[in-house]
C-alpha cells in the first residue's frame, strides 16, 4: 500500500514529542509535527520519503533572542550536516527550496549564503534555480549605505540524478538539454492571467525588429510572441511578488502562506509529502494541508510546535467546512439555478413587461384636465413653482408614482405567489385579507401580502387581524387540521420583531419584511437580492420607449397648460384654483392674453458673428 493510502487509515497523531512513538506504534511519518532538533529527527527518517522541502531556517544570528541563531561564520558548517540529511530523505525527483538572505556584517553582506550554495553543490546538490521573493509591503527604512531590504532568496536545489533528458538531434539544443536535470515540476499549476502583457510587448517591437528576428537569426521570436497574443494564461517569472502579511502574530519570522503554497503547487501533486525542518508556526504544513498534500514539520521549540499544531488543526477544520459547504452547495446549486431561471423568466414576462405596458398605457391616456383636478394646487404654489413645464412635470410625476406603486406592488405580489406555487403548491387565496395559502413542513400558512411595512393604520391592521382569525376558522371548517399560521408579508423594508402577539391568540400573526419575507416565501436568503438582476436588465431595455413617450406627453401637456393657465407669461394660480375647487361647473376658456413667440426673422446686430462650423470651415480653407 502506498504512503498516501496509509495515512488515510491511520489516525492523525500530530505532535510527536518522542520519536520512539513513531517507531513503537509503527506509525507513518506523514502528517506529523515533531518536536526536536531537525538534524536528530532527520537522521531517524527513512530515505526518499519526501517530495518537496520548503523551509526558512534561522537566519544567521538575527533572531538570537527569540529562537536562537548561528553566527554567520559558523552557518555553513552548521547547515551542511542538515542539508546532507535533507538530501537523503528527499525523493530522487524532489526539490528543496531554501528561503534565506545574507546578513549584513561590518557594513557588507556576509558571504555565508554563497559559500553554502557552493558547499551544497559539493555535497551533490544541483543549484537549479533561484527565485526572488519580493516583499511587496516591507517596512520602510534607509541605512547610510543601502536601502530597505525588500526581497529574499528562495534557492532551488535538486538532487543529482543519473537520468538525463533525451538528447534531440539538433546539435545546438543538445548543449542545453544535456545539462538539464530531471525533477518534478507542474508549471501549469502556477500560471497567471495574461493581462495585456503580450499586446504591449508586441507593440514595443518595431516592424524591423520583428522581421529581423524572423529572417536573420531565425529565432522565430516575432512568431512566438504572436502565439501568446491569443492566450489567456502565461507562465510566471521567477520573481514572486508577495506581501509579508501572514496573519500569524505569534511567531516573529513566519513567512506568508502564499510562499510555500506557490512552491507546493509548482513541485508537488496531491498526496505528495512536503517537509519543513524549521517549522516555526507551521505555515508550510498549513499550506500543504490546504492543498491536499501530506506534511512533516520539525521544530525545536515546544511553544512553536504547539502553535503549529493549532494552526494546522484550524486549517483542517476550515477545509472540512469548505468541503462540506461546497458539496452541499454544488448539489443544491443546480436546483437553485434552475429555480432562478424560472424566476427571471417570470419576472420579465409577468412583472416587468406588464408593468411597462400599463405605465405606458396610463401615460398615453393622461389628460391634463383630469389630472389637474386630482392634485393639490396649493401644494404646487407652496413649492413656488413658476415654470409651466415644472408644474406639468410635477403633476405627471406625482400621478405616475402613485399609480406605479400600486401596479408594481400587485405584479410583484403575483410573483411571490408564483414562487410559492412552484415550490410548495401555494395558491392565490379567496379569503379576506389573505393573498396566498400554502403548506410547508406540516404548517398551513395564510399570507396577506403588502408592498412596504407602513401599509396601513391601526384600523386597517385590526381589520386584517380580524380577517386572519376568521380565515383560520373557515379553514378549520374546510377540514384543515394542520397548525395554521398567519403572516403579513411585506415585499420591502424590515421588521425587527416579527411575532405580533395578540391577547386573542387567533389574531396573532407574524410580520415578515424584505429579506425575511422573500426567505419565508422561498427558503432562500439571497432571493431578495437576486430579483434585482432581471428587474435591472429589463428596465434598461424598456426604459427608452417610456422616456420618449413621457417627454412627448409632458411637452404636449405643457403646451395645453400654457394655453389655459398662463397669463402674460405667468401661471394664473387663481384660474387654476377656480378650475380645481370652485363650486359648480367651471367652463375652461383659453387665456386671452397669451404671449406669442414671434418667429419672424429680424435683421440682427449679430449677423456678422461666425458660428463654430464657419470657424472650422475658414480654418480648413
Ligand atoms: C525562520 S523560523 C521559521 C518560520 C516559519 N517559516 C513560519 O512560517 O513560521 C525558524 C524556526 O526554526 C526553529 N529552529 C531553530 N533551530 C532548529 C533546529 N535545529 N531544529 C528544528 N527547528 C529549529 C526555530 O525555533 C524557528 O521557529
Structural descriptors:
single chain; 621 residues; alpha/beta; Rossmann fold; nine-stranded mixed β-sheet; binds S-adenosylmethionine; site-specific DNA-methyltransferase (cytosine-N(4)-specific); N-methyltransferase activity; DNA-binding; restriction system; Restrct_endonuc-II-like
Give the N-terminus to C-terminus distance in angstroms: 90 Å
Total number of helical segments?
A: 22
Report the principal-axis shape: elongated
Quaternary structure classification: single chain
Major sheet: size, sense and barrel closure? 9 strands, mixed
* Total E-strand runs: 23
- Backbone structural class: alpha/beta
How are the strands of the largest sheet arranged?
Answer: 1-2-15-14-3-4-10-7-13
Enumerate the distinct ligands: S-adenosylmethionine
Poorly predicted sequence stretches spanning 5 or more consecutive residues? 1-11, 164-180, 609-621
Classify the beta-strand content into a percent band.
15-25%
Overall structural domain count = 4
- Mean pLDDT value: 82
Fraction of helical residues: 40-55%
Rg (CA only): 39 Å
